[in-house]
Amino acid sequence: MISQKRRVLISGLITILLMASCSGEKNSAAPPPELSRPVFAVNTTIASSGQIQDYISLSGDIVAGSTIDVYSDAAGKVTEIYTAVGRWVNRGTPVAAVDPSRPGMSFRQSVVTAPIAGTIVAVTAQVGMTISQAVPLARITGGGALEIKLHVAERFVSKMALNLPCTVILDAWPGDVFQGSISELSPTIDLASRTMEVRVNVSDTESKLKPGMFAKVRIITEAKDDIVRIPSTAMLSRFGEQYVYVVKTDPENPEYNIVMKRNVVPGILIDGILEIQDGLLPGEEVVARGQTLLEDGVRVNVIDRSSI
Questions:
Q1: pTM assigned to the model
Q2: pLDDT of 58-102, one tens digit each?
Q3: Residues 6+ away with beta carbon under 8 Å from 96
């Protein structure tokens, strides 16, 4: 029979052999250190240098720069209409004739002439109509540039100034962009609507615009050139910090990319495009999507690259 001492010795040797065998299996199953680091899939964008514009979007109607109603100097019956809507007239061109005669009294016809040169946009008188001096016979728009009449909310009044540039688009001419500028600011605020009337001159060298058209206007209140721009989704704001993740080559293994946390100073935000005033240079690659779980120094796999 095996003595108790030898039995304890054999049991200890068996335990040591089992432990060594398990340790070897663990070492053989452990992955290489390079493969043990997680890699995050991200989309990136290239920070660009360019212009950013702040603007106010409004809509209004195109009106003639000058509109004049034509009146008769004498009351009476309209006997002749010499013009029609859409016709161009010069100053002094006959518009209508009015007979001021009364029962028992005969007078010579009074010929009403155009007070300015322009286009007839309305003829309100008809032959046989009896009118007074307060009733307009026709309406003439002057030959000057067209204007757009806008109403700006009171909270934007401080941003308004003469000669601010504007861009104009119209449903009547899809794809065309017209240029203009603020030409007139009302000195008062309308009490009912709490708005200020603004007039915008429009450049129309091809005569495409007509009074009465509906226009969508962007008034450019601020423009910055040569600034660094990125999508607003690329910046994170946490715990009082505002930062982005910049993609760099892993110095330990050039086959991989890593991200570096970079604090930035944001500027104005327009249509999803953010100005970066400090902390980022043009041409640097930043993470635009997938940065929620990132930390400084982690590896990333760039799935898609885009630019502004």
A1: 0.63
A2: 999 998 777 889 999 999 999 999 999 988 899 999 999 999 998
A3: 70, 72, 78, 80, 81, 82, 83, 111, 112, 125, 137, 138
pLDDT value for 28: 46
Share of the chain above pLDDT 90, in %: 66
Q: Are residues 268 and 124 in the same domain?
A: no
CA distance 88 to 91: 10
- Number of domains forming the structure of the chain: 3
- Residues 130-134: contacts with CB within 8 Å, 24+ apart? 130/75, 130/76, 130/77, 130/78, 131/72, 131/75, 131/76, 131/77, 131/78, 131/98, 132/75, 133/71, 133/72, 133/73, 133/74, 133/75, 134/71
Q: Are residues 124 and 152 in the same domain?
A: no
